[in-house]
Amino acid sequence: MRQAAFDGKIDYIPAYLSEIPKLFKNNHIGLDVALVQVSPPCRYGFCSLGVSVDVTFPAIKYAKLIIAQVNPRMPRTMGDSFIHVNQIDHLVPYEEPIVSVYPIMHDKEITRRIGFYVSQLVEDGATLQIGFGSLPNAILASLKEKRILDCIRKWLQMK
């Protein structure tokens, strides 16, 4: 990628993820095409962006052309995550597993022990916000016996 940047084939824009929608809106990052993955439409014609609502929603708002892969494996998520089929220029039905990134644990035993100790600080019924990576995964794995929110319990059961 470094060579492509030197050759002028790509641009590198240092920005926080939260700044990307404003860069789209102000046309600092012009979008000709948004390639997105969506759930199948509901009976009213709305598709969900599923697990990819971060900058995807602003991308579809400002792109000149929207091409959507309709993947039956994409979960329907609630909130500001829907696009109507009439807003999509091309629908491409294609089923495949949802891309997941599994963190690499360098020292699994230390990570597991830290997760266990942190989980002992969490009271039953607590509400948690937790990030990504091997340590949050270890904490969540150690919380299986806690009475935490049902959504977290269901997520743990899916793992």
Polypeptide structure, described:
With 159 residues, the protein is of the alpha/beta class. The chain folds into two domains: 2-93, Glutaconate Coenzyme A-transferase; 108-158, Transcription Regulator spoIIAA (2-Layer Sandwich). Helix content is 30%, strand content 14%. It has helices spanning 2-6, 20-25, 56-62, 108-119, 134-142, 150-158, and strands at residues 33-38, 46-48, 65-70, 82-84, 90-93. Strands 1-3-5 form a three-stranded parallel beta sheet. α4 packs across α5 (134-142). The two termini are 34 Å apart. Mean pLDDT is 83; it is low at 150-154.
Percent strand: 5-15%
Number of domains: 2
Fourth-level CATH superfamily of the largest domain: Glutaconate Coenzyme A-transferase
Mean pLDDT: 83
Would you list the SSEs in sequence order as H and E?
A: HHEEHEEEHHH
Name given to the CATH architecture of the largest domain: 3-Layer(aba) Sandwich
Rounded to the nearest angstrom, the distance between the terminal CA atoms is 34 Å
Nearest-angstrom radius of gyration? 20 Å
How would a crystallographer describe the biggest sheet?
3 strands, parallel
If you consult CATH, what is the topology of the largest domain?
Glutaconate Coenzyme A-transferase
- Point out poorly predicted stretches: 150-154
Number of helices: 6
Total count of strands: 5
Given the helix and strand composition, which structural class is it? alpha/beta
Helix content: 25-40%
The 3D shape can be described as: extended
What is the name of the CATH class of the largest domain? Answer: Alpha Beta
